[in-house]
Design brief:
The chain has 584 residues and is of the alpha+beta class. It folds into three domains: 57 residues; 81 residues, Alpha-Beta Complex (Penicillin-binding protein 2a (Domain 2)), CATH 3.90.1310; 324 residues, DD-peptidase/beta-lactamase superfamily (Beta-lactamase), CATH 3.40.710. The chain has 18 helices and 23 strands. The strands form seven sheets. Strands 2, 3, 4, 5, 10, 18 and 19 form a seven-stranded mixed beta sheet that branches. Strands 12-11-23-22-21 form a five-stranded antiparallel beta sheet, with helices on both faces. The chain is elongated.
Length: 584
């Protein structure tokens, strides 16, 4: 028994000794490991404190802070009835990591057609050691889907936004476009860029291994405001289609049509040709991307005679039936003035002077008023000043002041030469006659809709009286004779409606050639003449196949006005009246 006891005591003692030895060894190992971990943490800290400058410490900290921009959605542009004319859509920026592209030439060949890029140029862009190269901005999601199926090494995409114009060329010169940097260029896009653009948001956070959003700061993007125009999409379409066809038919350098409500100043259409497609700027000429209606000026020619006649009635004591003897020529100072069609001594009423567009008769009417009276009348009608529309690039035209007049300036101004204006200014003049002598500032912005859907209309246009209501009505009645068989624009007649208007055929002054070259043909009219609801102007610059306003511009007026009257549901008003006498 003692032997068994001793053996057991020995085994337990040995086991205890073994375990103590093992634990001691384990503690030493743990201490060593702790020292290693401590050194791993301490050495970088010592390095930062002892060897790294404070500037480097801040730079390293800042490098861990990331800020990502959150783009605001640009506001829509819609017509008066809510038809979308400009909208922001999802897009993709196609990006290349050159270090991962295995076959630049082969990949370029596959991408070129999809992205509408030159294969050779694209191959160069895919070659190199840059990790980030923008291959194509604002590709459509559909295009990216096609690219993605190709599985090309080194090609990836980033989400972006693109501006789209669902109606293509329709109203392009009104809308303008958005450039590659997201800024509005020309048109409404530029004019209201700050309103449409909104404010980008941002997300700022500190990058920590294993934690992606530590210390996050978030600023929400504020989307842009939607803009509603006074433009009517359908009237704009017919106006653009009509002027495009007539520019082609006549071989004109350009043409324009404006449709305006004379009571409110609202512009229902403002079309120009040639135009451009804002969805694809690469296919258009730069000169077609602006709005020549506002940027181009011309001498109005006979269009301006209505101002002369109205001023003579308002201040010179004449009336529509005033009898005038028109000689075959008129000499003023060192210049001889004649009418377009040669004639002997004829007898016309003031109405007849306007109806047959007599230069001599207009000069004689202008001479019934003083120089400053005629000048102030031109200014009151808006010549020589901006229209108030607020469009970028608009020119005020040119009107010489009386102190700078020569001996032939007044007679020249009387029949529409010696000064210049833009097409909207000309339209505004006739809107003043249509509105019983009150000039209303043109407007193209109807109102704004915020992101909550609340619509805020813009204030109504300012107005001022230019001539008496009686004179304005008389001029309208006189201009009805212009579209008669004896007048210069019978092609402007519309069955069932009373039409008043005036033709213009003026010499075109070329700035490039520094001389007169070609013609400007125009017609501006209103309907119904006794109670006008619409005014439409048509201008063709340098037409080749025909150049008289009554011949090439009046038919466009008739087509657009006929459609607009139906579109706006404007019924005929008073009965046709007997014409005022043209001669005596």
């Amino acid at each position: 028994m003692n032997t068994r006891f001793d053996t057991k005591s020995y085994d337990e003692a040995t086991d205890v000794e073994y375990r103590n030895h093992y634990l001691t060894k384990r503690v030493k190992s743990m201490r060593l490991l702790s020292i290693i971990v401590f050194m791993a943490l301490a050495i970088p800290l010592i390095n930062v404190q002892a060897f790294v400058s404070p500037e480097e410490v801040l730079a390293n900290a800042a490098s861990q802070i990331k800020t990502v921009s959150i783009p605001a959605v640009r506001g829509q542009i819609v017509d008066r009835n809510g038809v979308i004319l400009a909208v922001t859509v999802d897009a993709r920026d196609v990006i290349a990591d050159q270090t991962l592209v295995t076959d630049p030439v082969g990949e370029a060949r596959k991408l070129a057609n999809l992205l509408d890029l030159d294969p050779a140029d694209l191959a160069v862009r895919l070659s190199g050691d840059s990790r980030y190269v923008v291959v194509k901005r604002n590709a459509t999601p559909t295009t990216w889907d096609q690219i993605e199926t190709l599985g090309l090494p080194g090609i990836f995409s980033e989400r972006s936004q693109a501006r789209a114009y669902p109606e293509g060329e329709l109203g392009a010169n009104i809308l303008g476009y958005v450039n590659i940097d997201g800024k509005g260029s020309s048109g409404i896009e530029e004019m209201l860029d700050s309103v449409l653009a909104g404010t980008n948001g941002s997300r700022t956070f500190t990058v920590v291994p294993g934690v992606s959003t530590a210390d996050q700061v978030f600023t929400e993007a504020i989307d842009g405001t939607n803009v509603q125009l006074t433009i009517d999409r359908d009237i704009q379409w017919i106006a653009q289609e009509a002027i495009t066809a007539q520019v082609k038919k006549t071989g004109a350098a350009s043409g324009s049509v404006i449709v305006m409500d004379p009571k409110t100043g609202e512009i229902l259409a403002m079309a120009t040709a040639p135009t451009f497609n804002p969805n694809n700027l690469n296919t258009s000429k730069r000169k077609n991307q602006g709005n020549r209606i506002l940027t181009n000026t011309y001498e109005p020619g006979s269009i301006g005679k209505a101002i002369t006649v109205a001023t003579a009635m308002d201040s010179g004591g004449l009336n529509p039936r005033s009898k005038m003897v028109i000689p075959s020529k008129l000499v003023r100072y060192n210049k001889t003035f004649r009418d377009h069609d040669p004639h002997g001594r004829i007898k016309l009423t003031l109405t007849g002077v306007l109806a047959v567009s007599s230069n001599i008769g207009s000069i004689m009417a202008a001479e019934t008023v003083k120089d400053d009276v005629l000048y102030n009348a031109f200014r009151a009608f808006g010549i020589g000043e901006l229209t108030g529309l607020g469009f970028p690039g608009e020119t005020p035209g040119l009107l010489p002041t009386p102190e700078n007049w020569s001996g032939t300036t007044k007679p020249t101004l009387a029949f529409g030469q010696g000064y210049s204006l833009n097409a909207l200014q000309a339209t505004s003049i006739y809107s003043t006659f249509a509105n019983d002598g009150v000039r209303v500032v043109p407007r193209i912005i109807s109102g704004y809709t915020d992101k909550s859907g609340r619509f805020e209309a813009t204030p109504g246009s300012t107005s001022r009286r230019v001539i008496s209501a009686e004179v304005a009505r008389s001029v309208r009645l006189m201009m009805e004779s212009v579209v008669s068989a004896e007048g210069t624009a019978p092609l402007a007649k519309i069955k069932g409606y009373r039409i008043a208007g005036k033709t213009g055929t003026a010499s075109y002054y070329s700035q490039a050639l520094q001389k007169y070259s070609g013609y400007v043909a125009s017609f501006i009219g209103m309907a119904p003449a006794d109670k006008p609801e619409l005014v439409i102007s048509v201008v063709l610059e340098r037409p080749v196949n025909g150049h008289y306003g009554g011949e090439v511009a009046a038919p466009v007026f008739k087509k657009v006005m006929t459609f607009a009257l139906q579109r706006m549901r404007i019924v005929p008003t008073g009965k046709l009246t007997s014409r005022l006498p043209l001669d005596w």
